[in-house]
């Protein structure tokens, strides 16, 4: 028997490859299937099942494409409805795979079709359970991501409580928990950096598995402090219920090199995403382009800040990162990448076309020049801001940034910062796109402010 976690850090997502004898199963595959096909070939095995824990909201799964290429059967839990052929397991149904068994445990709460898959080994022991977004390491799934449900958040949280207590708690403490996500995913609020653990240890450290919590207290704990889910989540759910554009065609289109004039013409009706480093974007970029650096949370931020993920996209990127950018965009349903600027910004500048810049300053300069009455915009999330922030800063989380454009004035000056300098450059590009240009980005963000300046923060004031 073999169980392998295939973890994708930029999405905080875990896919699982399971093999017993010459039969294999994959749980929650990403959209690109090549690596799974290579894995199946290298393991000299046949893919029998594709198990899906639920209709994912944070990425587009590759189950339909993988099933077409391998002949494997797609398995969902109860209540699943989709536009493609699949098998809907009933609660406690068992699937044979070589010498092992995989048992479907219906665990509604995160969504109504959410299902965990229990692996029972050749010794008839509960070896591990693939919990999807029902149970994470250090957390449980958000009970508010169901789409078109008649149930309230409270109703879903109560279902989640019963699912965990009725289906997960009775398993052996030695059973390994394999979730669909780790820290950094928007599908939970308190995930640990670890990507697997034993159930016994989670009972000790996971707040949601505290046996002293009654159902009312559990509901309060799991629903308190949830930020709004990203705007692309409902669209990804719909895509995961449908047959979508060919992944191979998406990649082929995105890898089209565009001459300067063709790129400029396409740019009139397309969104330009600049995938380079923040400092490169600050020094020179195409007016109206949106910075989303490929070395950060590229795809989730693209899904979150683009007003319409179905828009045509063209890229400014280093040549060796173009395919990676197109692939990562497709993971969150951004399928209409039409090509990239051949020759990059150097070619654009050489052609004599207009460029724009973002003023970006060191913390030492910021400390010298900022006045108490000036506007400081903090684009971190609520939790980061609550922990510590500059006393005169204004919270404008990047994940809800588009709803706040009306609050900015073209003739005002704004200092923009995040935690480390990535999100603030995204925010600057979005504001510039809306005609707000008097912006100053603070290099290194709040981490540098806290470390290298004497500017007062709320936490510092409270300790005095």
For this structure, the CATH topology of the largest domain is Metallo-beta-lactamase, Chain A
* Average pLDDT figure: 93
Radius of gyration: 24 Å
Tell me the number of helical segments per DSSP (H or I, 4 or more residues long): 17
What is the domain total for the residues? Answer: 3
- Terminal Cα separation, in Å? 59 Å
CATH superfamily of the largest domain: Ribonuclease Z/Hydroxyacylglutathione hydrolase-like
Oligomeric state of this protein:
single chain
Which overall shape is indicated by the principal axes computed on the Cα atoms? globular
Q: Which CATH first-tier class of the largest domain would you pick? A: Alpha Beta
Determine the fraction of residues in helical runs and give it as a percent range: 25-40%
Major β-sheet strand ordering: 1-2-3-4-5-6
- The fraction of residues assigned to DSSP E strands is 15-25%
User: How many strands, what sense, and barrel or not for the largest sheet?
Assistant: 6 strands, mixed
Q: Poorly predicted ranges (pLDDT <50, ≥5 residues)?
A: none
CATH-level-2 architecture of the largest domain: 4-Layer Sandwich
Q: What class, by secondary structure content?
A: alpha/beta
How many β-strands, per DSSP?
24
């Amino acid at each position: 028997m073999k169980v392998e976690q295939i973890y994708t850090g930029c999405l905080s997502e875990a896919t699982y490859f399971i093999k017993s004898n010459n039969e294999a199963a994959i749980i929650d595959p990403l959209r690109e299937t090549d690596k799974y096909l290579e894995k199946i070939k290298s393991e000299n095995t046949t893919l029998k099942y594709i198990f899906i824990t639920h209709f994912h909201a944070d990425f587009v799964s590759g189950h339909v494409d993988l099933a077409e290429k391998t002949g494997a059967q797609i398995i969902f839990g109860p209540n699943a409805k989709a536009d493609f052929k699949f098998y809907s397991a009933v609660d406690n149904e068992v699937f044979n795979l070589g010498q092992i068994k995989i048992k479907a445990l219906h665990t509604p709460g995160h969504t109504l079709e959410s299902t965990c898959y229990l692996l029972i080994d050749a010794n008839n022991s509960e070896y591990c359970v693939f919990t999807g977004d029902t149970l994470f390491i250090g957390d449980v799934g958000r009970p508010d991501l169901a789409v078109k449900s008649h149930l309230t958040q409270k109703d879903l949280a109560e279902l989640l409580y019963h699912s965990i207590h009725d289906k997960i708690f009775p398993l052996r403490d030695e059973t390994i928990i394999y979730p669909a996500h780790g820290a950094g995913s928007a599908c939970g609020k308190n995930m640990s950096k670890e990507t697997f653990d034993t159930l016994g240890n989670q009972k000790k450290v996971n707040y949601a598995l505290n046996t002293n919590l009654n159902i009312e207290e559990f509901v309060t704990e799991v629903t308190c402090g949830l930020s709004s889910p990203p705007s692309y989540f409902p669209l990804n759910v719909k895509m995961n219920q449908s047959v979508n554009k060919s992944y191979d065609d998406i990649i082929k289109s995105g890898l089209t090199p565009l001459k300067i004039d063709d790129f400029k013409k396409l740019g009139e009706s397309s969104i330009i995403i600049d995938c380079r480093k923040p400092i490169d974007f600050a020094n020179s970029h195409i007016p109206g382009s949106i910075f989303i650096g490929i070395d950060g949370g590229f795809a989730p931020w693209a899904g979150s800040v683009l007003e319409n993920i179905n828009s045509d996209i063209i890229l400014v990127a280093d040549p060796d990162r173009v395919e990676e950018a197109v692939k990562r965009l497709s993971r969150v349903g951004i399928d209409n990448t039409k090509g990239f600027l051949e020759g990059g910004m150097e070619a654009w500048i050489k052609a004599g076309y207009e460029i724009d810049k973002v003023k970006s300053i060191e913390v030492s300069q910021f400390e010298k020049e900022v006045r108490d009455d000036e506007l400081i915009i903090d684009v971190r999330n609520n939790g980061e801001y609550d922990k510590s922030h500059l006393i005169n800063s204004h919270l404008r989380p990047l994940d809800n940034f588009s709803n706040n454009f009306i609050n900015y004035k073209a003739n005002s000056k704004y200092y923009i910062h995040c935690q480390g300098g990535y999100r603030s450059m995204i925010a600057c590009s979005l504001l510039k796109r809306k005609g707000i240009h008097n912006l100053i980005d603070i290099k290194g963000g709040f981490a540098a402010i806290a470390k290298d300046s004497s500017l007062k923060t709320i936490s510092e004031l409270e300790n005095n």
